[in-house]
Amino acid sequence: MADDDAQTRPVPYRGGGFSARPMRSVGVLTFAALVAVWELGSRYGYISNLVLPAPSEVIEAFRDLWVSGTLWEHLGASLYRLVTGWSLGTIAGIAVGFAIGLFRPVRASAGPLVAAIFPIPKIALLPLFIIWFGIGEASKVGLILFGTFFPTVIATYGGVDNVDRTLVRMGQSFGLSRWEIARKILFPGALPAILSGMRITAAIAIILIVAAELIAAQRGIGAYIQMAGSLFATDQLIAGVLVLSALGLTVSALIGALELWLLRWRA
Amino acid sequence: MQLKLSGVGKSYGGLPVLSDISLDIASGEILCLVGPSGCGKSTLLRMIGGLELPDEGEILQVGAPPEGSLNPLTFIFQDFALLPWRSVAGNVSLALESHRAISRAERAAIIADVLSRTKLGDFANAWPKQLSGGMKQRVAIARALAVRPAVFLMDEPLSALDAQTRDILMDDLIELWSRERFTAVYVTHNLQEAVRLGHRIAILSRRPGKIRRIIGIDTPIGARTHQDPELLAIQEELWGLMREEAEAADKELTHG
């Protein structure tokens, strides 16, 4: 083999890469760099203040919002509508989705109905809801309820359908009643799907509430943004958008924590 | 309690899967059902356990189940069928919870007892996901023991395990049977398992499954070893009977 020395070399490495490991610091740096460029651009006049206010001005506007208490007034109104509408829609959606998953007649009757109403952009129904429920809270809560109900129904019965049937058969083989199988096997088995449905409906609820408030509301983050826009107060406008971003992140973190706790058996 | 099958047949959508199966399963006996894949042996087991209805014939349980048996016909499944969101103790508990007569304290005592009998005492709070295949099947066996069955219905209980684990669990099953003398119907496609564990071995033919032959083994289960020439001869004989069927089954297209 000594003759082959010229041909002897380490096996070329061609693995590695394609890793999903987080690089947290890079994310923070990117964000900081972007804000810095934006701030400098505004200060030196490359970015017109009318188009896009400097980050420092946005922070100032946000501080005003916070200190004056307007933030809590608007955020409170939005949160009330979100929490009420989303909770009612989710509870009703899980109940109906579960009924579809369990009973074939319910599936046969409600299934096509859900499939037909699901793709309607729910915001298109706001005028109708205002006619039905008036300009007050009921029309907005109702819109969110309606908007979160259908995706929850679909996620829930999809989850029930996907529960391993051998587990159901196991339950039957130990003499569990239908109700016990539903409660102890199908519901926990469908929970991961229900929770990912919640993630989606929470995002839908935020979109719907802001859209509804942009169109018809005196209070709420959407109304605040709408007001700032009509006054060309872009610093306030962006501050409002930042509140929405924070709201979305908080909701998603809460659902993440709920998942981590309820689905700890998956870890 | 004994089981009596007479003229049992089953078809799916006009395709006969099993036909004219007649069997008697005596108390304390382990009957192995072997056959090529798709011969309907798992379907037969599900019918014996009341999870499916036969289209023809009848399946009878003769005599009362022993006193205190909570679930006379109890399954052990190939893929363990553990609830992933329940701990080891929780999975055993599931089988007991529906029996109102058992108090919380009694339930805890039964769970502790069956877990120690299956060498799982230290793992009561583990999640199924943390367990090896062999341990998972032990949990399923513990769960089955908890309801004090008259008949164990085992559907390829060792098939999802690697060879070493299978041997270890096989020894455990033999030890368990020597102590408890339970009745069992044991479905497998592994002939080595069948000759180690069966008092009688029923060979099913390919679709529609019919009983081709029933072979009895006299050597006591506790005295059987891997190298026993008599058992090897029986295994060889079984293979001779099954080979053609298995080859033909292999070439068959699956329906549906």
TrEMBL record, chain A:
<keyword id="KW-0813">Transport</keyword>
<feature type="transmembrane region" description="Helical">
    <location>
        <begin position="79"/>
        <end position="101"/>
    </location>
</feature>
<feature type="transmembrane region" description="Helical">
    <location>
        <begin position="113"/>
        <end position="135"/>
    </location>
</feature>
<feature type="domain" description="ABC transmembrane type-1">
    <location>
        <begin position="75"/>
        <end position="255"/>
    </location>
</feature>
<keyword id="KW-0472">Membrane</keyword>
<feature type="transmembrane region" description="Helical">
    <location>
        <begin position="193"/>
        <end position="217"/>
    </location>
</feature>
<dbReference type="InterPro" id="IPR000515">
    <property type="entry name" value="MetI-like"/>
</dbReference>
<keyword id="KW-0812">Transmembrane</keyword>
<feature type="transmembrane region" description="Helical">
    <location>
        <begin position="237"/>
        <end position="263"/>
    </location>
</feature>
<dbReference type="InterPro" id="IPR035906">
    <property type="entry name" value="MetI-like_sf"/>
</dbReference>
<dbReference type="GO" id="GO:0042918">
    <property type="term" value="P:alkanesulfonate transmembrane transport"/>
</dbReference>
<keyword id="KW-1133">Transmembrane helix</keyword>
<dbReference type="GO" id="GO:0005886">
    <property type="term" value="C:plasma membrane"/>
</dbReference>
<protein>
    <submittedName>
        <fullName>ABC transporter permease</fullName>
    </submittedName>
</protein>
<keyword id="KW-1003">Cell membrane</keyword>
<comment type="function">
    <text>Probably part of an ABC transporter complex. Probably responsible for the translocation of the substrate across the membrane.</text>
</comment>
<dbReference type="Pfam" id="PF00528">
    <property type="entry name" value="BPD_transp_1"/>
</dbReference>
<comment type="similarity">
    <text>Belongs to the binding-protein-dependent transport system permease family.</text>
</comment>
<feature type="transmembrane region" description="Helical">
    <location>
        <begin position="141"/>
        <end position="160"/>
    </location>
</feature>
From TrEMBL, chain B:
<feature type="domain" description="ABC transporter">
    <location>
        <begin position="3"/>
        <end position="231"/>
    </location>
</feature>
<keyword id="KW-0813">Transport</keyword>
<comment type="similarity">
    <text>Belongs to the ABC transporter superfamily.</text>
</comment>
<dbReference type="GO" id="GO:0016887">
    <property type="term" value="F:ATP hydrolysis activity"/>
</dbReference>
<keyword id="KW-0067">ATP-binding</keyword>
<dbReference type="GO" id="GO:0005524">
    <property type="term" value="F:ATP binding"/>
</dbReference>
<dbReference type="InterPro" id="IPR017871">
    <property type="entry name" value="ABC_transporter-like_CS"/>
</dbReference>
<dbReference type="InterPro" id="IPR027417">
    <property type="entry name" value="P-loop_NTPase"/>
</dbReference>
<dbReference type="InterPro" id="IPR003593">
    <property type="entry name" value="AAA+_ATPase"/>
</dbReference>
<dbReference type="Pfam" id="PF00005">
    <property type="entry name" value="ABC_tran"/>
</dbReference>
<dbReference type="InterPro" id="IPR003439">
    <property type="entry name" value="ABC_transporter-like_ATP-bd"/>
</dbReference>
<protein>
    <submittedName>
        <fullName>ABC transporter ATP-binding protein</fullName>
    </submittedName>
</protein>
<dbReference type="InterPro" id="IPR050166">
    <property type="entry name" value="ABC_transporter_ATP-bind"/>
</dbReference>
<keyword id="KW-0547">Nucleotide-binding</keyword>
